[in-house]
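Appendix B. Extra example for self-study. Work through it before the problem class; the solution is given directly after the inputs so you can check yourself.
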Amino acid sequence: MKNFKKLVGAAMAASMVFAMAGCGSNNGGGGDTFKIGGTGPLTGGAAAYGQAVRNAAQLAVDEINENGGVNGYMLELNYQDDEHDAEKAVNAYNTIKDWGVQIVLGSVTSAPCIAVADKTKDDNIFQLTPSGTAVECTQYDNAFRVCFSDPAQGTASAQYIGEHNLASKVAIIYDSSDVYSTGIYENFVKEAEKYSFEIVSAEAFTQDSNSDFSVQLQKSKDSGADMVFLPIYYKEASLILTQANGMGFAPKFFGVDGMDGILSGVDNFDASLAEGVMFLTPFAATSSDANIVNFVKAYEEKFGETPNQFAADAYDGVYLIKALIEKSGVKPSDDVATICNGLKGAIVDYSFDGLTGSGITWSADGEPNKAPSVVIIQGGVYIEM
Amino acid sequence: MSFLQYLISGLSLGSVYALIALGYTMVYGIAKMLNFAHGDVIMIGAFTTYTICSALGLPPAAGVLAAVVLCTLLGVCIEKVAYKPLRKAASPLAVLITAIGVSYLLQNVALLIFGTNTKAFTSVVSVNAVRLADGQLTITGETIVTIVSCIVIMAGLMIFIRKTKAGQAMLAVSEDKGAAQLMGINVNGTIALTFAIGSALAAVAGVLLCSAYPSLNPYTGSMPGIKAFVAAVFGGIGSIPGAFIGGILLGIIEIFAKAYISSQMADAIVFAILIVILLIKPTGILGRNIQEKV
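Solution. Structure tokens for the complete assembly:
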């Protein structure tokens, strides 16, 4: 027993030495390599999102390195699994911090992103989340995002409907038990006041009563709506489309990014019911834009699947970081605070052209300003409008 | 006009609740236990039909039949394995907790087999929708079939219990298990039969529930199960016509609350009405007031 204790003691002492050695390499940076790290769900229920981000980020990093890097410096990417769990995200962040991360590209999903943002703020590391939509993801001044925030989607939807005169009377069906849906709904209503279309009905449902939409649809129909706005996920949307069809109600349907998945997310769903559905998304893989075509081709060749909006957000994220490094002139040998201040200063008023929009600018609060893009489902595929 | 359409929607929703409530009340009435796994047996029934019809491409009748057979077997098995050993337990809570356990077990097994992806259920009903008043009113085929099945099943159950020997045995068991046994009634067999019938009803309810609201995942049965339980209590638990009336009323109240008061508060309103009714009539609408004899 005594020997065993000694052994444990020795092992602990040894591990402490190694841990300290790890600390030593923390500050130095890579010399001629920028270390970009991030966390995302590489396994578990949201794995499709995390893998898309990691793959697309790796694709962008490889492209940049092949073309001579950034100001002559190489990029290196280290992506760690957070299983879409806030606690595991902090552990994953500590792993990349030990590795010597200088710029954080993450996290992928909102809850882990909020947890990691607390850490990067303390460590004063520049953070750019490709796809964390919750408001709190960018609440500190070192954090920015590529995607629209939840409330911004409501604003952007109203703008798009108003500016393109898509409807004159809009009904809304939203999930009052979900912060994502409610947030979009509230901002949609606020923004809609500025446009000529009228909101004629707004009906809620909750997670406890999300199968029968007969009343909500009947009210929308009775109010004479020619468009129904659905700031909800595709699961409930599929039921709404089915039930509207059953009662002979055929308005235009307009959704947000939660609608992405309507064609494949519900097994056995009759996709013809989704014909003509429009929704807000930053990226359509079917676009004819030359940059998108090249990206989709390269991604499909390397990973064997069509990239989704998460992949596009991450790809843009890496190129944005490249542009910011060039603009600010920071070097890998600078400490993280200098890099953070440099990139922070560079991003404000910078105009970025990427896959998810052109002429994107950022305000100091971390939010991107970009024109919303909308796809419509035609013939079972997303067509850019 | 929209009032009539809401009434039809209420009947449609209510008939589904009624169908589920029939199974609940049947098991409670005879075995005197709340089978909280009933909602999940419904889900298993729906998945069986989905697998047979959508995945294997067999006709709807085969799917419904397979669901009824599988759920009947499942019901008997659950009773044998999980409930029967606890029938003599000191506290009736033991079997209630077990029922909740069985409910989670069924959900997780379904998760394991079918995954989390929601499935769009193809309706097994081939009756056409009836359109009235120039198409302003629509009664779906599913609503018609559900209401008709409800009435047929209700009548069938009442005749079965009143007129057959097995039915009489059920009544005797529900009155007093000990005395029934002394009279030569096979109590275990009778309770197993009750579960078999209750679970077969669950299969039918599952198929019709998912035909009317075509979204199927491992949690599909739990909320309708709870609502149907409420409907059964509302109508007077243990009473077969009570379950029917309770279910229909609950559906109509829910739809009207959504339509005329608030779509957000509908559930709260439904339960508030339930509390008021139970305060006025604690045994439910058709519940019998049995005096305990000393």
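Self-check: Chain A has two domains: 33-148+290-371, 151-281. If your reasoning did not lead you there, revisit section 3.
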